[in-house]
Specification:
The protein is of the alpha+beta class. It has two domains: 123 residues, Ribosomal Protein S5, domain 2; 78 residues, Alpha-Beta Plaits (2-Layer Sandwich), CATH 3.30.70. The chain is built from five helices and ten strands. Strands 1, 7, 8, 9 and 10 form a five-stranded antiparallel β-sheet that branches. A five-stranded antiparallel β-sheet has the order 2-3-6-4-5, sandwiched between helices. It is elongated, with a radius of gyration of 23 Å. 36% of the residues are buried. InterPro entries: EFG_III/V, Impact, Impact_N, Impact_N_sf, Ribosomal_Su5_D2-typ_SF, UPF0029_Impact_C, UPF0029_Impact_CS. Pfam families: DUF1949 (PF09186), Impact_N (PF01205). This is YigZ family protein. Belongs to the IMPACT family.
Amino acid sequence: MTTVGFRTVAADVEHDIEVKRSLFRCTLRRVADEDAARTVIAQVRRAHWDARHHCSAYVLGPAGALQRSHDDGEPAGTAGAPMLAALHGAELTDVVAVVTRWFGGVLLGTGGLARAYRAAVTGAIESAGVLVRRPVTLLAVAADHAHAGGLEHAVRAADPAAVRAVDYTADGVRLALAVPPERVDALRTLVAEQTAGTGSLAETGSDFADA
């Protein structure tokens, strides 16, 4: 897992531009995997069945290792590649862009098409905004009933965004936390202090969280 995080879109958007009477609509979505990206592409095709082209590009994975683009009937290299270049230019990953084109009757030429498809994606990115997802360590914390309330309060006070789940059981409380790696030792100390050494903390995995 990358130790520096990655950039993705902050919101799902649709963005329209018109070029010589052709309408280009970019559907931009944040996605977690290739199945989700393909689902978005299929949904756009169904929603805009009357359009001539549904060109697409997506980048996936923390390092952007998985990349795909498709011209969907446009001249080779005039749609998918420029769209992918727009995603690369914004340094985005875990994102899919689908540009639907309704032909307006005027031919744009290969250069005009490439500029239009890239501009549609660039405009959508500007509309959506960008956020950074940082690596986090997943923690499982447990404490008995005597310390449960105080521990939960202390954890939320220290880092409100860290708490992913709270489960009160017959034995006490279990907290599922996600914290930056550099905060793990501080959380370990906090748990020990709040539970008089009776609580437990275990690292259960890693993930990313919006910064």
